[in-house]
Design brief:
Number of domains: 2
Number of strands: 12
CATH topology of the largest domain: Replication Protein E1, Chain: A
Number of helices: 10
CATH class of the largest domain: Alpha Beta
Strand order of the largest sheet: 5-6-3-9
Structural class: alpha+beta
Distance between the termini: 20 Å
Oligomer: single chain
């Protein structure tokens, strides 16, 4: 099978699972377009000469489509690169304990709030500590290489900022990891607890069980990583795969069966590819 047809086969075989009334119309439309990509169903352009004729089907321009998603990614990266200032940047990664992942997996309205939550924490803490206004780009990640749900946020922060209400640029910004960690932990727990008490948290667990989890997690250590970036291009290439591409590259799919799909991911601990 041609590599470019593998994801199409997957989408087509799983049609009964997504072509349903309870699936969001945008999802059904995107998958349908991906199946029709570069086929005559979307129309085509005909190029002909005296000796030859070639028909090129129109692209679907859908993000789940491997070819169209790639073009959208490149365009997004170019636009962001041109818009962002040419200054040094830092990266701050906000993670959370794995016991909280199911709560965000089952409550997408809370998951989508995480990037803005992370950005506000950075801006408030830096502003309070040094009086600087920094630029932040926050990207939500909801899966890992094995396609397991894993909610966390990657951010790119200007390594300098505007001082107060002036146009004076201060080159150095200090991002205190422990302070960011404490604020992030507090904000995420509050987000979940408010949703729980407001009856807006969907879960198979009871209210008492969720409260016990939140009580335990707000007392433990969470991971927040601060690092320097070589360039804004480095971050945009990494982030673009998550905001404009399908969750898995076609080259990672090695087998498509009637009820199973085999693919590989890079295990960082083992330092090699592992089949799933």
């Amino acid at each position: 099978m041609k590599r470019q047809e593998q994801l199409k086969q997957l989408v087509n075989q799983t049609r009964p699972y997504w072509q349903r009334d309870e699936t969001r119309p945008a999802v059904r439309s995107a998958f349908t377009k991906a199946l029709q990509c570069q086929t005559l169903e979307l129309g085509a352009e005909v190029f002909a000469s005296e000796n030859e004729e070639k028909i090129l089907g129109h692209p679907c321009k859908s993000r789940p489509c491997p070819s169209c998603g790639y073009r959208a990614t490149v365009q997004w990266q170019r636009e962001r690169f041109a818009a962002l200032p040419d200054v040094p940047y830092k990266g701050v990664t906000f993670t959370m304990p794995d016991v909280l992942w199911p709560l965000f997996r089952d409550n997408s309205h809370l998951t989508t709030a995480l990037p803005s939550l992370a950005a506000r924490i950075i801006q408030i803490r830096v502003g309070t500590r040094s009086g600087l206004h920094v630029g932040v780009m926050a990207i939500l990640h909801t899966f890992n290489g094995k396609l397991e749900f894993n909610s966390h946020v990657h951010t790119m922060v200007t390594a300098g900022g505007l001082y107060g209400l002036s146009d004076k640029w201060i080159r150095t910004v200090y991002c205190q990891r422990d302070g960011l960690l404490a604020s992030w932990r507090k904000a995420v727990i509050r987000l979940l607890r408010d949703a729980l008490r407001g009856g807006q948290l969907v879960s198979a667990l009871t209210v008492d069980e969720i409260e016990a989890i939140l009580d335990a997690q707000e007392k433990r250590w969470w991971s927040v990583k601060v690092q320097n970036f070589r360039s804004k291009e480095h971050f945009l290439k990494y982030a673009g795969r998550y905001v404009r591409r399908p969750p898995i590259a076609q080259r990672r799919i090695t087998h498509v069966g009637k009820r199973t799909v085999k693919f590989w991911y890079m295990d960082k601990k083992l330092g090699r590819k592992v089949d799933v």
